[in-house]
Design brief:
The structure is a single chain. The strands form two sheets. Strands 8-9-7-10-13-12-11 form a seven-stranded mixed sheet. It has helices at residues 12-22, 42-45, 62-66, 80-84, 87-92, 107-114, 132-140, 150-164, 194-197, 212-223, 256-267, 316-330; strands at residues 2-7, 27-33, 71-74, 94-97, 128-129, 144-146, 174-179, 202-203, 230-235, 242-249, 273-275, 293-300, 305-312. 47% of the residues are buried. Strand 1, helix 1 (12-22) and strand 2 form a beta-alpha-beta unit. It is 31% helix and 19% strand. With 346 residues, it is of the alpha/beta class. The chain is built from twelve helices and 13 strands. It has two domains: 2-126, NAD(P)-binding Rossmann-like Domain (Rossmann fold, 3-Layer(aba) Sandwich), CATH 3.40.50; 151-314, Dihydrodipicolinate Reductase, domain 2 (2-Layer Sandwich).
Amino acid sequence: MIKAGIIGATGYAGGELVRILTGHRDVEIVWYGSRSYIDQRYADIYRNMFKLVDARCLDDNMEELAGQADVIFTATPQGFCASVMSEEILSKTKIIDLSADFRIKDVSTYEKWYGIEHKSPQFIGEAVYGLCEVNREEIRGARLVANPGCYTTCSILTAYPLAKEGMIDMNTLIIDAKSGTSGAGRGAKVPNLFCEVNENMKAYGVASHRHTPEIEEQLGYACGGEIVINFTPHLVPMNRGILATEYASLKKNVTPGEVKEIYDEYYKEETFIRIMEEGTCPETKWVEGSNYVDIGFKLDPRTNRIIMMGAIDNLVKGAAGQAVQNMNLMFGLAEDEGLRLVPMFP
């Protein structure tokens, strides 16, 4: 039985980790870490866990937790994991960090986009970017995994096969993405109040969103060179889900069948990626509550462009589900263990 600790267990991603791991047959949660709710019953904070979790919240003492857990999930704000990371901790346990602290390989890029000093850059080189469908073998042997961001997971997987095959001009790539409000976290913020979000839709982080360099770095690896993209996120009045619509110029003439063959070839063994038929547009409702990524595309011969579309649940495949998928790989378990979650509909 794998002993797991969660730091940040009372945020939305942390709560989703608890939900998924509670149903995982090979895991026991030994630490519900939450600085804001120390010594309060977890089920009093998340009442959906009434009679399911009979534990109290503990603090965020990583050093103490490292002696008790085989794996620690840090569902915390940027900067926390890097500030406490040490060789002593990594010698005792594995870390899956859901923040951006170890996702970006260039320290100066991280510090520029996140506006904070990186406290443990010596571990960035070791950290494996935890996009399971791309870095599966590296994840298996990792001590430290950087769990990808929600927008980035959807954006990268949607374009990855075509980027890898050199089919699209990467410097023409434009990503327009929409997210439910849970992506902003559980903290009280005026822009996320019901009256602010309901019956409304807005762009934010225009030309400045922190996930931009992460997407550029990973798709740059795919196509074999540095790229610059436009990425614009939007907030929509729903709880969960991300829909990314991506536009790029084609480098050669292709048929819908040829594009479908490429997607099918790259993802044919992937349990959690579902490729739509050409012209079928993915919907967030089709993946809600699950670890699936639905991907569709449409060719536009008039403009010689392709429109790629991807949908995920931002709290599952975009955060907690992907973290559990990474854990399964790191411990030699079936990759879908605990993640056989049928999407909820309606």
